[in-house]
Amino acid sequence: MEPGLRNGNVGLPSHWFLIHAVIIVVSIVTVLRNYDLIPDQLPVHFNGSWTVDRYIDKSYSIVFIPTIMQVLGILLFIYEYWRMRRGKQQVREDLTYRRAWSNYMITASFLFVILLSVVQLNMTSLLNMNFVIPVVLSIIAFIILYAYTLTYWAGLRESR
Question: CA quadruple 88, 90, 95, 96: dihedral positive or negative?
Answer without folding.
Answer: negative
